Amino acid sequence: MAGAASASCIFCQIASKSRPTTILHSDEKVVAFEDISPAAVRHYLVIPVEHIPNVKDLQRRTEDFSLVTHMLEVGQTLLRRDAPQCTQYRFGFHQPPLNSINHLHLHCLALPYTPRWKCVKFLSLGSIGFLEAEKLLEKLKPLPPVISKV
């Protein structure tokens, strides 16, 4: 479940700046940094400051939709700034059981993949594969309020 930072979570340590990492962006909601095992020309991670284990812990509500939207906007801004020569970008999340760290993190990739075989880690395989950020946003978008006619 979402909640307080976990002392054993490496991403919580990065978010609280208790683990030395080059931070590309930081605000009250998210922190962004380079992936330690890049799979593309540029490969960044955007994580929430709050400990949220994975995409399965997000719900169709304004707060979660707003958080993922902000994560995506930060990732897009960083890649446009740092890899303007790239013409293709990918943004998404690994889903359990294929997520490597139990702290929600958005992969921001400026393609091509390097080396090319690393694209395998980012295949969409239904409910267990790589989930594109836009598809997650569709799932999280709050429903409009129902207005009853009297």
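the 2nd protein, sequnce then structure:
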Amino acid sequence: MTTAENKTLDINQIKELLPHRYPMLLVDRVLTWEAHKTITAIKNVTANEEFFNGHFPHKPVMPGVLMIEALAQTAAILSFLTMNVKPDENSVVYFVGIDNARFKRPVVPGDQLRMDVEILRVARGIWKYKAVGTVDGQLALEGELMCTIRNTAEA
């Protein structure tokens, strides 16, 4: 687990906290985090992302659902860091809802999507977060995400 002094995570530390792998791992680095509060992470969007082959070959745009997924993965990392646990092969984070999702600008190859996620509350096993994605300081998307953490044996 990351110590209180080191508030960044590299890709190997992220892979210890998320079960996702290429092409679905959408968080490249955690810049900073504070347990029970916030996390800031980045996704470097490159032209060789698999989804750009079909979305869209003539004008590549990162799909909105994948931008939301990147925010949800960032939120899951914050939850595990807050609980001070590393998930095992039976842990799964289910995305259970989104409110007030808005897309404000396209995210394209060469962009760096900065993801800021704040825990709003945790109640009855449901985590609710405020999530914002920006590119070069411009709002790209925002919304309120809800997730729950389960053991696959329970699911």
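Residues 19 and 89 are 8 Å apart (CA to CA). The mean pLDDT is 94.
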